[in-house]
Amino acid sequence: MARPGTRGTAYTADGLEHSERGIPSSQAGDHLAQLDKRARKLEHADYSRYWAEIEGEGDVAVVTWGSCTAPVREALARARAEGVKARLVSLRLLAPAQPERLAAALAGVRRILVVEQTHSGQFHRYLRAAFDLPCETRVFHRAGPLPMRPGEIHSKIVKELAA
Amino acid sequence: MNIVTAPQPFSANDYKSDYKPVWCPGCGDYSVLLAFTKAMAQLQRPPEEIAVISGIGCSSRIPAYTNCYGFHGVHGRALPVGTGLKVARPELTVIVAGGDGDGLSIGGNHFLHACRRNIDITYIVMDNRVYGMTKGQPSPTTEPDWDSALAPGGTGLRPFHPLVIALASGANFVARGFSGDPNGCADLIVQAVRHPGFSFVEILSPCVTFRPDQREWGKMVHAAPVNPTDDAARAARRIMTDDGFNIGVLYAGNRAPFRPQTAPAAGLDVIEAEFAL
To answer: Would you call A20 an interface residue with chain B, using a CB distance cutoff of 8 Å?
Structure first.
């Protein structure tokens, strides 16, 4: 993108829907071209291997995201100390969904526990909408404001995954 | 004796793009665009060394109608963008432009603090005392008794005094123009750009569609009867007590502009290293 001060390349960066030359436009063609362009950018962006934090081995896994990650990690450490073999998959990238990569991360897993701090389990709903969950799925969700505690997640791991 | 003047490489037309504005026929903003291009021609600054920053609204469409670098961004947030640009690129001439709703309501808080920071930029508010783009709602500068379908009987609210608030907040240059006098506006813009620090120019720019009564403004405006002062208290008293149609430079202060030190420009690799996992 041209830097202000460069001769012959002046443009207006426009926040409204605009034509290829950056001029505000409400034409259907320009609207579609912009939507396509934004989708293309998102689709082809390099999200790197840090699209998710994937840790551990085992035929069960906890799938979570965001601020639940640390208490889940602590709960899994306790469970592993008790002999449970489980993986952690914490999504750092929610959209665009990476179904192939999640499938690879969950290859060979027979059961997953989705952990999320929500009232209605919308992360689980999103996972079901955007991914092919390959195995039996259990969900632990609870509303805030009290943060998720490793102890309560550990009990769920023992009850839902280790059994 | 022949007077030989140096050739002027830039004409007003060199600052105008080939896009036709969406403004209504008769809108005051056409004349503000004309005044802007005339002012830039007087300043003879190459178009690519000028950045025109705006928010949202009819008048905020102005960047794409110029041949300068433009940024047509988020409603009410033109001043933070202009401030950031000037701090990072002090060698550019930064002009922020917009309307009374964008600048004094949605962006009112930014207006106060841009005046206070006194960065060397120029802020042009095309004041038509109405939200034109959204079809005629009263704005912060609308008269309390302006009767309309959307505000029957008027709002009953005291209008905002942009020039006094600019003074109270620390703007270093305060002027009022009228779009019906593009040459006069051009002169105000030139002075505003040349004056160090934050320069505020309110241009009365009629909305003939939603405020047809403003067609009378041409008869109501008059040159300010006194010279500009560098005494903010005196300027504020004058502006508070005038009829709102005093045209001219009303205050030109001596506050030193704020020029924060910036870090040396960093390469992309340095920035990326900061975010590496």
So the answer is: no
